[in-house]
Each structure stands twice: as structure tokens, then as C-alpha cells.
Amino acid sequence: MTQQKTTALPAGLIALALGGFGIGLTEFGIVGLLPEIATDFAVSESVAGHLVSGYALSVAVGAIALTAAVSRRERKGVLVGLVVLFIIGNLISAIAPTYAIMLIGRIIAALCHGAFFGVGAVVAADMVPAHRRAGAISLMFAGLTVANVVGIPFGTFVGQQYGWRATFWAITVIGVITLAGIQLLVKRSPAPESKGLLSEIGVLRRPQVLLSAAVSILTFGGLVGAYTYIAFTLVEVTGFGVAAVPWLLLLFGVGTFIGNLIGGRLADRALDRSLLIVIALLAVVLVVFALTAASIWATLVTIFLLGTVGFATAPGLQLRVMRFAGDAPTVASGANIAALNVGNALGAWLGGVTIAAGLGFVSPLWVGAGLAVAALLVLLPASIAAASAESRDAGPDVSVDANPAREQQPH
To answer: Once rounded to an integer, what is the mean pLDDT over residues 230-239?
Structure first.
């Protein structure tokens, strides 16, 4: 019986994962519906695209601003409020009579995105023993990776069958179920102790927190920089037909789900060491992809490995920034979500620059590899410095260990 209690999956993690799934559908499900939305609102394709880019920018803002604003409040109540915000945003999108109102709905839904994962990561980590924290975080993010796999096909299918508004009605229903799940399955906890908002935001000035955020930016910049233009690479370089692209992206998505779970287990065993290894593998996979992009069979393997290795970094990146801000983990967690989205924008921009410069559709893969190497060059000295500081018993601000069980984060 005792063993079962130590290994059983906390039911609250399921509710958090469902919330991650719904948020992921909100982010990705609209992509295949943009032509119908553009036609319905009589706007151009590029203007309709602002429903995607505006969402992403709002995620970055909400991840820091909203997370900081709620960091001193009881976390279950915060999660409930964020899911209510999510429901309202998607409901507005479902009934929006004009493009402007729909954009407002997208922004409202996006504001909860970063804060939900920021607060949720801390709640998930608190549900399990210290040595299982990265695994718990990966389970919460599993909802997002599942949405990565089915989000675009789901949103497109529902929208094509029943109209694009039906997709947002479906996501709204998922939000209501998530709200009920959090109310029933997530335990209330005392409001975290705080020295004040300015003091909590001050943790973002700590060198190891900043270095962790930089590693997140560069790592996901490398992954997303390659992924953003992958359809062009698959069609123009590898020679796949356009109809094959969704299935190839599904292969990538399956890899992200597997990699996320593997990454959580690895980070629980050896945080910095596993991150160094996985990020190095990401660089290698991107280089191999770039060199073999003209081969159909090699591409089938590398696109799966890209998703697997790329998302294997996510739990460790999230846990690392929280580790160095044990006295303000919620703010730090939200800041890392913002960092990941900044990396998304950076990678996509750099990939676009290389294509515009005439370097071809393989060039974003080289950009991704370069950013992954840069992440290694930041993480390696940061890891050495952290280990050295720990050996001198420099305090919890800079302590990191390959075994998370040795450290108890104050909450």
C-alpha cells in the first residue's frame, strides 16, 4: 500500500494536463481555419494571421505580467481564475460578430496561457516528492504536446464539418471540463509566503535565472526556427507532396509527446547533465536533417527525432529556472514560459531572414543548429559555475544538483 502511494499519479495532474490540452488547442487549432475566418470577416490572409501572432505576443506578456500579479495568491484559486479567463476568451471568439472582437477574444485567452503553465508547473511540482518534480511538470505539459499532435487536424476537421465557430465552442467546453476538474482534483494550499512583488520580480536578476532563461530562448529558438518553415523544406527540398505534410507534422507531434515524457524522467535523474546531452543531440539532429533533407527516408527519421529531442528539453528547462528561484518559483516559472515564446519568435525570424537572403529552405535547419550550439555554450559554463557554487555551500539561490531530491524548494 505504501508503495502504491509513492508511485500513483496524482489526480490533479490529469486536470492540469487537460487544461494544457485545451490551451494547446486554442493556440494551434486556428491555423487550419484561417482561410474560412478571413472569408467570413472579409479580411486578407495576412490580417487573419494576426489572430495567431497576436496570440503569441499576448502569451509572452501574460506569462510575466499576469504571473507576477498573482504570485502571492493561493494557487488553486489562481488556476481557477485563469481557466475562467480561458473560457471567456474562447467564448468571445466563438460568438464574435467582427474580426476586432475575435482578436480581443484571442488576446484574452492568450493572457492565461503563460500564467497557467507558470503557476501550473509549480502546483504540479508540489504534488509529488522532490525527486519526481520534472516528471510531474512533463505530465502537465503532456496536454500541450498532445494538442501539438492533434490541434491543427482537430481544429480544421471540426471547423470544416460544422463551421469554424464550432471549433471554439468545442474548446470552450474543454475549458468548462477543466474548470470542474481543477475544482474537484487539485487541493488548496496556503498562499505562498512573499517578501513583496518587487522582491519576487527581483529573482529575475539572478545570474543563474537569467542564464536559464537564455538557454530556454536559444534552445526553443533552434527548435521552432527549424519547425516554422518545415513544410517548405519537406515539399521544396525533400520532394513530398503537399498532401503528405499534415501526416509528416503528425509524426513530429508524436515525437514531441514521447520526448516530453522522456525529458521529464531524465531531468529528475540529472538535471544539468541531461539538458547538456539533450541539447547537444538537438544540434546533431538538426545538422543531420540539413545534410540529408533531400532523402525521403532519412527525413522520416529526422523529423520524428526532431520532435522527440526538441521537446525532451522542455521539463528540464522549466525546472532549472524554478530551481534557482525557490523563494519565487511562480514568477520564475512564468518568466521561463515567456522566454520560450521569445525563443519561438527569434527562431522564426532568423529562419525567415535566411530564406529571404536566398539561402534556401534548408537554411532554417542550420539556424536551428547554430542556436542549439549557442544554448550549449551558455549552459555549460552556467552548470559548472552552479556546481562549483554548490560545493562551496553558497546557499539555495545558486544551488543545483543532479539529484533534485537533495533540495527542497520553499513554497
So the answer is: 87
What is the average pLDDT across 102-118? 88
Cα(387)–Cα(268) distance, integer angstroms: 16
Residue appearing with cell numbers 534552445? 219
- b/e string for 118-146 if b means 16 or more Cβ within 10 A? bbbbbbbbbbbeeebbbbbbbbbbbbbbb
Q: What is the mean pLDDT of residues 278-302?
A: 96
**Entry pTM:** 0.73
Burial of 195 (0-12, 13-18, 19+ CB in 10 A): exposed
What's the length of the chain?
411
Which pairs from 134-137 meet CB under 8 Å and 24+ separation?
134/263, 134/264, 134/265, 134/266, 134/267, 134/268, 134/271, 134/315, 134/316, 134/318, 134/319, 134/404, 135/264, 135/265, 135/267, 135/268, 135/315, 136/10, 136/13, 136/264, 137/264, 137/315, 137/318, 137/319
**Is residue 371's pLDDT more than 90?**
yes
Q: Quote the cell numbers at residue 234.
A: 519537406
R_g over Cα of the chain: 21
pLDDT at 327: 66
Using a CB cutoff of 8 Å and minimum separation of 24, what contacts does 352-360 make? 352/228, 352/229, 355/229, 355/232, 360/237
Does the structure show a pLDDT above 90 at 74?
Answer: no
Residue appearing with cell numbers 520580480: 201
CA quadruple 394, 397, 398, 402: dihedral, nearest 10:
110
Q: How far apart (Å, rounded) are the C-alpha atoms in residues 66 and 20?
A: 17
Give the burial class of 244: count Cβ atoms within 10 A of its Cβ; 0-12 exposed, 13-18 middle, 19 or more buried.
middle
**CA dihedral (284, 287, 290, 292) positive or negative:** negative
Cell numbers at residue 80, please?
Answer: 481557477
pLDDT of residue 398: 41
Question: Cell for 55?
Answer: 496570440
Q: State which of 42-51, 124-133, 268-277, 350-359 shows the largest mean pLDDT.
A: 268-277
How many C-beta atoms surround the C-beta of residue 350 within 10 A?
A: 20
- Write down the pLDDT at residue 1: 40
- The answer to whether residues 251 and 191 touch, using CB atoms and an 8 Å cutoff, is no
Q: Identify the pLDDT of residue 402.
A: 38
Residue 407 or residue 10, greater confidence: 10
Q: Cα–Cα distance between 260 and 319 in angstroms, integer?
A: 13
Q: How many Å apart are CA 88 and CA 80, to the nearest integer?
A: 12
